[in-house]
Design a protein that fits this description.
By secondary structure, this protein is of the alpha/beta class. The protein folds into two domains: about 25-30 and about 40-160, Metallo-beta-lactamase, Chain A (4-Layer Sandwich), CATH 3.60.15; about 160-290, Ribonuclease Z/Hydroxyacylglutathione hydrolase-like (Metallo-beta-lactamase, Chain A), CATH 3.60.15. Helix content is about 25%, strand content about 30%. The protein has ten helices and 14 strands. It has a seven-stranded mixed beta sheet. Strands 7-8-9-10-11-12-13 form a seven-stranded mixed beta sheet, covered by helices on one side. A hairpin with a 6-residue loop joins strand 8 (about 170-180) and strand 9. It is globular and about 55 Å long. The two termini are about 30 Å apart.
């Protein structure tokens, strides 16, 4: 960890953090795992002073959106995975392979959740994808401790219902907390840049009551609107209803709530969604689309 922090300290991301930055959130993928919603799956990009620095999730279709945004793999300083479902991770092999055709020379840290009997931990997940002689894409194994110019370094975020700090250097910090996504290990992240912050719920149903602690007073809170108020069964076990979104937002009091991970069961139900949220939360609420940008000054 000390070596990683030292590398990040020398990176342009942390050098930029010492000045007044223009910070922008770009939604690369605003949809879910469906193929009928005309959206890429979940993915977000944080820009700092015009540089594409921090990637949160990278689901199917996100690689095309990344290209369309004019983002640059060489500028990335970290990847944060909320959980390891396909619609949040599917395009990682495409990103790693594309890095081969750039001038990138760095260790790119990737953070993701712990494992359990249902899902592998993040280190194991990445190893199973790329490990030399064993991985699904074993020809990419040189990117995990080999001689490739781009090295992917995976780190597990351990289970904790208390907010933990993953990185804290030169006005940049990344905090995390476990959230409830059924049997799937899942993490919410807060990225603090100077006096600004962005918080990402990932997929969750609110049962742990941890997101409101992590997101308290954040400038932007990205929450996933994957199910309608009438959701029951597995859908409600995995995702927040609009009522829960409103209750969490009321406790966290963010500057703006952005609703993403919009699936066919919530698309065209914006009025009903807002109506439920407004029962608890009266602040700003915006709906995300692929390519949506939100500026923090």
């Amino acid at each position: 960890m000390k070596k990683l922090l030292f590398l990040l300290l020398l990176s342009p991301l942390f050098l930029l953090a010492q000045s007044n930055q223009k910070i922008m959130l770009q939604v690369l993928g605003s949809g879910g795992p469906e193929m009928n919603d005309k959206r890429a799956s979940s993915s977000y990009l944080i820009w700092i002073d015009g540089k594409s620095r921090i990637l949160i999730d990278f689901g199917s279709g996100a690689s095309l959106r990344f290209e369309e945004s004019d983002a640059n793999i060489e500028e990335l300083d970290m990847i944060l995975l909320t959980h390891l479902h396909i619609d949040h991770t599917a395009d990682l092999p495409a990103l790693l392979k594309a890095g081969f055709f750039t001038n990138i020379k760095k260790v790119l840290p990737l953070y993701g959740p712990y494992g359990n009997s249902t899902m592998p931990d993040t280190k194991t997940f990445i190893r199973r994808l790329f490990e030399d002689h064993k991985g699904a894409w074993q020809y990419m194994g040189d990117h995990l401790g080999g001689k490739a110019d781009l090295q992917l370094s995976a780190h597990n975020v351990e289970y904790s219902r208390e907010v933990q700090t993953l990185l804290a250097e030169n006005n940049i910090s990344v905090e995390a907390v476990s959230v409830h996504h059924g049997m799937i290990p899942a993490i919410a992240y807060r990225v603090n840049i100077g006096n600004k912050s962005l918080t990402f719920s990932g997929d969750m149903n609110g049962e742990f009551h941890t997101l409101e602690k992590l997101a308290k007073g954040t400038d932007i809170l990205i929450m996933h609107n994957a199910v309608p108020q009438t959701a029951t069964g597995t859908a409600a076990l995995l995702h927040m209803t609009p009522q829960t979104i409103g209750e969490i937002a009321q406790k966290a009091q963010p500057g703006t709530v952005i609703l993403s991970h919009r699936m066919s069961r919530t698309l065209d139900k914006e009025l009903e969604t807002i109506s439920e949220i407004r029962k608890s939360y009266k602040g700003k609420v915006k709906f995300a689309d692929d390519g949506s940008t939100f500026l923090l000054l």
